[in-house]
Amino acid sequence: MNILIAEDDAPSRHLLRSILTSWGYAVTVAVDGDEAWNILCEPEHPTLLILDWMMPGIEGTEIVRRLRASEDIYPHYIIIMTSGTNENALALALGAGADDFIAKPFNNIELQARINVGCRMIALHEVLAEKLHKLESLTKTVSRLARTDELTGLHNRRSFNESVTLALSAARRHGRPLSVISIDLDHFKKVNDTFGHSVGDRVLTGFSDLLKELVRVEDIASRWGGEEFIILLPDTSREEAATLAERIRSACEVESRNSAPVTVTASFGVAQLQNGENEDDLIRRVDNALYAAKHNGRNRVVIA
Amino acid sequence: MTNTLLKATWNQGMNAVDDAAFITSEIFDKAAFIRRNQSNVKLAGEVAQLFRDSLPEYIRAIHVAVAAGDATALRAAAHKLKGSAATLSLTKLSAISGEIEAIAASGDAEATARLLPVLELQCSLALDALTNMLVTSEEKTPL
Lengths: 304, 143
What we know:
Chain A is α/β, with parallel strands linked by helices. Helix content of chain A is 53%, strand content 18%. Chain B is built from six helices and no strands.
């Protein structure tokens, strides 16, 4: 444990440092409030502080206020020390945000007891901080899982719905185009029925890998459900979206030929957001385009 | 009346300089000071020496503040001496410094001026007491 002492009186400072050192603590010393504050502004600094109240430069209680104002949780344990005769000194020190108070000249046994409390509190804070860190990490994982399709690793429907709302709003605000591609694997049911669900799953993951390869980082490639997929394309016109759809269709076809006897093609609908449309309107139009692609013989791209 | 009182106090102080036995625990509570230093005589000697080195500056700061009529500076300087003297268990010096600190806050310059000679006397007694302790320590244990 490293303890910061901020004390402007040389004899008191030397005595305190010597006693703390003899108790086995590492000690950092500041001769006034300004030096103490500079030490506390360093990335690595002591967390247990014994601050004189009245010092040249920044006073002890002001250091406490500044520290508390800059902390999310309280990682510092602060003992204010003073020889003041103000009967409200204890209340004022605690009111400023100090954890404890000790009067000068201090009793060594009392000082040691108060430092022990400080060490215990810091240890508790460290445990709490570690648990909070784990909780944040778990929350991120849960959040990611809640937005990810388990089989394919693509965005799931919930994630797409959240993204499309934001993307529509941004597209309208900035006057930028926004397109979507709706995809359905052709005769996928036959694959499942003929080769079994594990092969069907491999087809879905293989097609998803293809999507991940071909879309941009800013695009949201999602599994809509079953063998249906949908891609959200910010800053993209329907012509650009159609070009991408054709690239995916063609790659899928080539891949499929190489994977005989499991051959799978895909049909595509493409639509660009129009003035006055909401997300439901856009999805309806792109689905209609997809149905047209299916109706016209599958393995093709139809632009709405 | 004040002069008579001061003279009597001063004479008392002068006698104390000649007679270390006069140094009572009210002036310097040596036992408490040694205890505060965890019975480490060497450390006690170092702390006492630091106080002796610091005292002239502490007194000077008080005089400068009085001369300038700066109540805030006087309060800070007296507070510092009060705390330092308390650490050394120089009970009377700490008390008189505390009085000056309190009076400074009230802004009564006349009352402050009356206390300054008493402060000087207590400083003198304190230095004698610490010198005596250091000499005694040196005789017993090399510092």
